[in-house]
Design brief:
Blueprint lengths: L9 E6 L2 E8 L10 E3 L3 H6 L7 E5 L5 E9 L1
Parallel strand pairs: 2-3
Antiparallel strand pairs: 1-2, 1-5, 4-5
Amino acid sequence: MKKEITIGSKIIIEINGQIKNLQIVGSADVDVNHGKISYLSPIGESLLGRKVGEIVEVKLANGKVIKTRIVKIY
């Protein structure tokens, strides 16, 4: 298991009580329908370098701030 989130990491996060499976990828590999988000996106940028158990505030493009908890990195 990886210790921190990097480009290529597959992760499980919790947002507003919902569990999401995501992978942090480069811009050319983005596929939101399959959970592949860019490391340059607001969520991707906020999660890089973070560890399991951390709660991260993410400011979305629309200005809304959400809290996400990192459940697993693999």
